[in-house]
Structures are given as C-alpha cells and as structure tokens.
Design goal:
- Helix content is about 85%, strand content about 0%.
- By secondary structure, it is mainly alpha-helical.
- The protein has one domain.
- It starts with a helix and ends with a helix.
Length: about 140
Amino acid sequence: MKPHSIGRALGIGLRVAGRIAGQRISAGAQAAASAPQIQQSADPAVQSRAAGRTAGKASRSVTRGVGGFLRPFRRVGGILWLEVTGVFFFLFVLVFGMALWRSRPNHLEGPYDRTFLASAALLLVFLYLGVSSFWRARRK
C-alpha cells in the first residue's frame, strides 16, 4: 500500500469517526433534554437498576465509538500482518535453502539422503506460504 493512500485512509477514517461521534453526542444530549425526569425513589433496587442501565448505555456507546475509530486501522493492520508473516516465512526459506545447498549430492545421479529431501520439502512449503502471504496482502 502506498504511503499517500495509507494517510488518505487514516484521514478519512478519522473524519468519519469524528462526524459519527458528534452526531451521537448531539443525539444523546437531545434525548436527555426531552426525557422525563425520573422520580427519586426510596427503593435502592430501583435506583441500582436505573444506574446499571445508564452505565450499560454508556459502555455500549464507548465501545461503538472506539470500534468506529479503529475500523480504518483494521485493514492496514491486516495488510501489515500478512507482509510481516510473509517475511518470516521467507527467513525459513533461506535457512532451508542453505541446508539444501549443503546436503546436495555431488553428482546428479548420486543418492539423495533424507536431509536433502526434507530440506527440499520444507523449502517448498515455506516458499508457498511466503508467496501466498504476500499475494493475500496485495489483494486486500
């Protein structure tokens, strides 16, 4: 992903999150102003239920707001995770490539030992994983 498109995605995400937060804050203020006042009850169970409902609404609002703020970062984070994973797999490709080179037979028709065959198989597996990880990152 190009640097200017990452900045554009982050900027757009922040503007949208700010707009949504502003709308929710103004809607909450209007609802609080128009809601009838709850009578003070002497029953502590009623007061604790009302406090629990208010706390639940507040925590849901905060969770929704944080989720909206982090949404643009999820895509960029996923791409970055795939690329880092691909580099990690390519490190194993290097390790098994060196082991393959060290254990190669001297002659083309020479016997292949277990180290050579195991290194070749693992090299192919990690090469596939590394390439597919970068491929997925480019498709995102």
